[in-house]
Amino acid sequence: MIRGFTGLPDQIVENVFLFIAAISVSILVLITFLMIYFTIRYRRNRNPEPQDIRGNLWLEILWTVIPTLLVLSMFYYGWTGFRTLKKIPEGAFKVKVTARSWSWLFEYENGVKAEELVIPVGKPIHLLLSSQDVIHSFYIPAFRVKQDAVPGMVTPLWFKAKEPGTYDVLCAEYCGQQHAYMLTRVRVISEDEFNQWYEGKGKELRAETSKGLPRGPQLLQEKGCLVCHSLDGTSRIGPTLKGLFGKTVIVLKDGKEQNVQADDAYLKRSLIEPNAEVVKGFPPIMPSQKSLSTDEEIDEIIRYMKELK
Ligand SMILES: [Cu+2]
Question: How far is the CA of 86 from the centre of ligand 1 (A)?
Fold first, then answer.
């Protein structure tokens, strides 16, 4: 019989897909064959006299029962597979995934944050997906998993990588202008290598926080600011942050153009209430940092932005 409908998510999805595809193709071939055969077999010059054919009980039973069984079997394998996909194995390694316009952030239990998902090979991974803004969809084609990341809720997803390597991560839900930029990677490494990476990163983090090292560049990276803002003077989705402090900016406030001086207070307003004053020529899509960053982080970002001459 058909095996392999339990196991890893990638096997399940693949087997169910092949099962349904095989049935669909067989039916397509059968129907096409019968269509052509009947057209030839019952053509007019062979059967000049039309016949009035009434129902055939056995035929009707057969072509009701067989397709019903086929469709139910698809449902059965789909459903059992789906249940396995939804059942997170015990002891799975947890990583929090946050989607936002337009990047992914991976947070580990020891506080380490990364832009790439680094995981150990052969261990079930439990992702907790959420979104900061619109609906995104976390998709790793190589592991056959795809799941929406919805603002305001946490959705679980699990998979296991069998081979070390690097695999693509995409966003599979059109989420705005830079949707295509939501491309990152899963880096699968051996358990030893992973533990080294994990502990090393954890130590780095503790050293940084205890010494209070300048975290500005890292914060901009982590918060996804650099997807929309450059530090080199070029415009992206938003204006560059280079040389902003002290500059006169033309903003639209309540629909009216105004000149404002980019001082401390302006920088803070830009982060907390980005849509109160919108820089002329740019769309009002900057996410407010009010609930996304702590007060210290905001102060640190402002301090750093003032250095960007
Ligand atoms: Cu997206």
Answer: 22
